[in-house]
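Review form for a predicted model. The reviewer records the input and the model, then writes brief findings.
Reviewer: anonymous (R2)
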Amino acid sequence: MEKEPKLQAKVFEHFAAAKFIKEIGRGKNGARSLSVDDAQALYGAMLDGRVSDLEMGGILLAMRIKGESVDEITGFMAAAEERMEKIAAPLNSLYSPVLIPSYNGARKKANLTPLLALLLAQRGVPVLVHGVIHDAGRVTTAEIFTALEIKFAQSSAEAETQLLDRQLSFIPIDTLAPKMARILAMRRILGVRNSTHTLVKILQPFSSAALRLTSYTHPEYLLMLREYLSGVAVERGDTFLMRGTEGETVISTARAQQIDWFHAGECRTLSEKQDRIESELPEVPESLDAVATAVWIKRVLNGEIPVPVNISQQVEHCVEVARLLKRQNFYT
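Model under review:
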C-alpha cells in the first residue's frame, strides 16, 4: 500500500533587509524614506517572520528614530491589511460602524474608553473596539470590559455576531491581526514602541465604510497623520483625529482636545481645544482600578450619574457621522 505523502510546514524564504536598513538607518537627518512598494514588501516580510531578529531590531529602532513617512505608513498598512481578519458590518444598522483602538489604557486617570463605546452602542451604533488585553502598569479597556462581564470576540465571525446582537464587540489584536500582535509585543524586548503601534490605531478591517477614532501622542505624528488621512479612499470611510487622553481616543473630561474630521479628502475641525479646565468638573471615578471604573460606568449607563459633557459631545459627533456614512454608502 502506497504511503500518503507527509504534509510539510510552509517555510518562508529569508528576506534580506540590509538594503532597506541602509536607507532608513542613517539617523533622523540622514535617513531616507522608503517607497510605498518597498515599505509594503519590507513590512510584509516582517509580519511573515522572514526577517532575522538582528535585522528586525535594526528596522524597528531605525524607524523609531527617523519617524514614518506617509508613503511608509501606506505601504505598511497595505501589507498589514493583506494579513489581518476581515469583518462584515451589520447590514440592518442605520449607522456605519465606529472603530475604537485601545492600546494605551490608563495610568493617571480612569480609562473611559469603555464608556464611550457603550454609550454609542446604546444609541444603536455598531462599535468595534480592538486592542491589547494587558499592559504592565496600565488599566486596559479589555480589563474594564472583563469587569463589566463583556466577553471578547474569539474570531471575526464572533465579532460580527456580537455587533448584530449588542452593537458592541471587543476583539483582541492577537485575534484580529496576530502577526501585528507579535511585533507589538517586541516593545517588551526593545523597551520602546515601534511603527506597529501607529498602524494599529488606524486599522480598518471592515470592507465597507467605517468611522475610525484615532489619536496621536507626540506632536510630530500630527502632520504625518493629517496627510495620510487626507488621502484615505472615500469607500474606506472617515476618521476623527485628536490628541490622545493618555493615548486613548476618548476625549478628556476636564479639558477637551481638538477633534478633526477627515472626510473625502478634506479636514474639518468639529470641536476646538478648550483653553482652560472647567471650574465645575464632572463626577469621575476616584480610582484607576478596573472594577471601580466598571461600577462607575454602570451607574452612568443607568442614569445615576450624568455623562461627562465632553464625552456626550464626542458621542453626538460619532452618531452624526456614522449615520451620514451609512446613508452615503447606501446610495453609492
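Findings: Residues 18-82 form a domain with the Transferase, Pyrimidine Nucleoside Phosphorylase; Chain A, domain 3 fold (CATH 1.20.970.10).
Further findings: Confidence is low (pLDDT under 50) at residues 1-9.
Recommendation: see findings above.
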